[in-house]
Amino acid sequence: MLQSLSYPKFVFGLLLAAALLNVASLARATSALSAPIEELNARFLQVMKAGKTMQFQQRYAVLAPTITRAFDLPFLMQSAIGGHWAALTADQRTALIEAFQQYAVTLCAAYFDDYSGQRFEILGETKTSSGDPSILVKILPGDVTDDVHTLSYVMHQMGSEWKAVDVVMDRQISLAALALDQVRALLSNYGDAGLLARLQQTTAELSRRASH
Q1: For residue 159, what pLDDT band results from cuts at 50, 70 and 90?
Q2: Which of 1, 5, 38, 165 is 20 to 30 A away from residue 17, measured at CA?
Q3: Count of CB atoms within 10 A of residue 90's CB?
Q4: % of the chain at pLDDT higher than 90
């Protein structure tokens, strides 16, 4: 996640616990569960198709509201911090959540800047082996010789809204688990102030490179 992590362009490595999928039903109709992911796919394609004609800050503005609606980023940060979260002040918690959100959006705005015919196809609503609802998405490349990938967005409910708390790639790799391990390592080595500084530094570096 922070500088040391490297992810495919279509994923942002921000989210929680690995899960093997047990596919139940594949309802194609948009539902309250799949709507945030439908919108996310649409915004990704919008900025990808615009390419370099859309500046970094414009991509950021397009993606920010959709990403914060689609993912429960405060929950993910709190999960990464663990028991130490209770010891933080309200201001410290707010600063870490805001830095994490800015990093997430910046990562996507920096990398979703070209298009070669890719398509996102929602296959339907499934359940993980632990019973959590998820949305299964197939990523179809523009070049038929390239690999097809799947992303499974593991969802949880916040009031009347559904938000993603994990992205499982190709039914094997939990990007949340990988990313949160990095957050925990930074917290262990540098404390919450060091974690905040690293998030802010990495976000600033990504923004600077993407703006040139």
Answers
A1: confident
A2: 38
A3: 7
A4: 68
Q: What is the CA radius of gyration of the chain?
A: 17
State the DSSP H helix or E strand holding residue 140, giving kind and residue range, or none if neither: strand 133-140
Structure tokens at 118: 């890719």
Q: Per-residue pLDDT averaged across 188-194, rounded?
A: 92
Structure tokens at 147: 């690999």
Q: Report the alpha-carbon distance of residue 104 to residue 127 in Å, rounded.
A: 25
| pLDDT band for position 206 (cuts 50, 70, 90) | very high
- The number of C-alpha atoms within 13 Å of 8 and in the hemisphere containing its C-beta is 15
Give the whole-number percent of the chain exceeding pLDDT 70: 86
Distance CA 13, CA 138 (A): 17
**Element containing residue 168 per DSSP (H, E):** strand 161-169
At 42, list the tokens.
């649409």
Nearest CA to 113 out of 207, 201, 200 is that of 207
Please list the residues that pair with 166 across neighbouring strands.
154
Mean pLDDT, residues 159-186 taken together: 89
Residue type, 179: A
CATH fourth-level superfamily of 21-210: Tgt2/MlaC (3.10.450.710)
Rounded to the nearest angstrom, the gap between the alpha carbon of residue 25 and the centroid of all alpha carbons in its chain is 24
Structure tokens at 67: 């990403």
